[in-house]
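Q: Given only this backbone (274 positions), what sequence would you predict?
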């Protein structure tokens, strides 16, 4: 009996945690299909009693430029991710496979930088972007995140496991270090790159804090900021339309995770995050 309880308890805790985390999303989805008269009722039952159809979705698509918000989010997230990988992959390879003066100190600095939140550097970054005249641009949304310490550390953990014999054979064949990085090492790191890509895309797709600081134009607003502007300017207290918009914003990231979940799990387990 004790063995059965010991085996079942972790699964029960995971199930309760999953329900706790999924409840806001279930509530959001159900509210998007509720009639306005049901949304403000005192009942905590989430499922709509009467099917309201896709009326809220039609309303939000008519009143808010959702396609523009999605496009802005795609440009910002893709731009950040591409530069992050272009910087992180060579840096992680150097930290993992080369010995040079100050390597351990540099790694310690990277680990320390992981503890610094964006709020600490927000003011100097804002002042710098303002002085350069870069506010209200895509670059202003992307620039603070081009250097990802998390990406460097995650990929370094993966590159540490890459066989040294393959690297020595490549050098004997006349390949340069740059060719080794991009033609041999990087293809082997697909799971780790996929894992970091999911982290990066979700984080910056859902980011509201930094766009609120540097963006005031609806034309450049990413999805969360766009929905905030839509909520204050158009929808007012129409929570059904707001939940429909939130559902549309959430759907791409859920789909991306489902498509990449196998690589994501491989990347996490192969980089020492256990």
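A: Predicted residues:
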């Amino acid at each position: 009996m004790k063995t059965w309880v010991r085996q079942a308890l972790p699964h029960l805790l995971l199930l309760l945690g999953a329900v706790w985390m999924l409840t806001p999303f279930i509530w959001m989805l159900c509210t998007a299909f509720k009639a306005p008269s049901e949304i403000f009722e005192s009942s905590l039952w989430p499922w709509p009693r009467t099917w309201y159809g896709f009326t809220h979705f039609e309303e939000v698509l008519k009143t808010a430029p959702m396609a523009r918000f999605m496009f802005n989010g795609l440009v910002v997230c893709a731009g950040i991710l591409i530069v992050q990988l272009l910087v992180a992959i060579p840096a992680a390879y150097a930290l993992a496979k080369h010995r040079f003066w100050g390597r351990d100190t540099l790694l310690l600095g990277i680990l320390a930088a992981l503890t610094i939140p964006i709020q600490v550097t927000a003011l100097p970054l804002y002042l710098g972007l303002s002085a350069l005249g870069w506010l209200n641009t895509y670059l202003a949304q992307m620039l603070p995140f081009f250097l990802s310490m998390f990406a460097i550390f995650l990929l370094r953990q993966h590159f540490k496991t890459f066989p040294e014999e393959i690297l020595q054979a490549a050098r004997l064949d006349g390949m340069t270090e740059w060719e080794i990085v991009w033609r041999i090492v990087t293809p082997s790191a697909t799971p780790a790159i996929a894992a970091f890509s999911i982290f990066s895309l979700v984080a910056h797709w859902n980011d509201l804090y930094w766009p609120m600081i540097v963006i005031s134009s609806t034309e450049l607003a990413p999805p969360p900021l766009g929905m905030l502007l839509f909520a204050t300017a158009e929808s007012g207290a129409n929570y059904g339309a707001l939940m429909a918009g939130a559902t549309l914003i959430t759907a791409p990231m859920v789909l991306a995770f489902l498509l990449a979940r196998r690589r994501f799990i491989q990347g996490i387990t192969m980089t020492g995050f256990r």
